[in-house]
Give the backbone structure.
Amino acid sequence: MILVTGGAGFIGSQIVDQLIAEGQEVRVLDALLPSAHREQPEIHPEAEFVEGDVRDPAVVAVAVDGVDAICHQAAMVGLGADILDLPDYVGHNDLGTAVLLAELARRHFDGRVVLASSMVVYGEGRYRCATHGLVGPGPRAIQSLAAGEFEVTCPICGEALSPEAVPETASLEPRNVYAATKLHQEHLAFSFSRETGVPVTALRYHNVYGPRMPRDTPYAGVASIFRSALESGDPPRVFEDGGQLRDFVHVRDVARANVLALTCPTASPGAFNIASGEPRSILEMAQALSAVFPGALEPLVSGEFRLGDVRHVFASTELALQALGFKARETFADGMAEFAQAPLRA
């Protein structure tokens, strides 16, 4: 039996479907929070369902009973509405993870744990200066952003930097509340692993998109925000100059990475980037959606910015291929064409 926390959500539900298709017994734990589910979500009929909050020790005790593996997806996601979301992020993400791990330790759990992490733990991506080599730029100054100067520069000489794919060994420097909680989840899970010997695999998702994304919410990913705008007859509103580089990875690929980590003969502890390996700009993604959405308006590059955003971050995918046998299958063009027509969740 495999427990999927957050198994009614965007990514969790896809994991549940793939696990059951592989012949696995699955139990879902989900609180069905209004911020993620304004309507009752469909849960695979072959999955056992436990409705409850991962922060509640009594609920968690029921959910983990008799399971052989844990796929921990339950979390608040996205940049959020504002800093007042901080207690909710810490509660759902960090306290929820701590309660889950404590119950596993109490039961002397000896299976494996797969944790949904995120590329946001890196903060800014990896950059190289032509003179000083690899450097770590600090947060972008609000004065620079307000002046339309969006690219990061070398902290030593001030020259322009070239972005590179981020390996799992890169330094971790979260730049917003959500990112800080995802990194803390990793720290908690790996501490639990050292204490108990239970293997923990942290999958650092890059920008996930695809069917079942929630719509019209400040907690959704940028792909969902753009798709919601198109559905409302508005142009996708692209912040900064649209040149921010990201790695857009299809949700079916992300679900498959989880299935591999949960079911491969030998557990692969550690952290792994889960991405397509093909960086694209935010503007390019908005244009790809607009091109295949009926009657769509062209994206609007607004020059707006958010202090919690980073400029470029995209992944090296070599380690996930070596350790998990994971390589993305869904192409950007096909994935965006499907996503433009796929139903979104309320």
In short: The mean pLDDT is 93. The radius of gyration is 20 Å. Residues 240 and 305 are 6 Å apart (CA to CA).
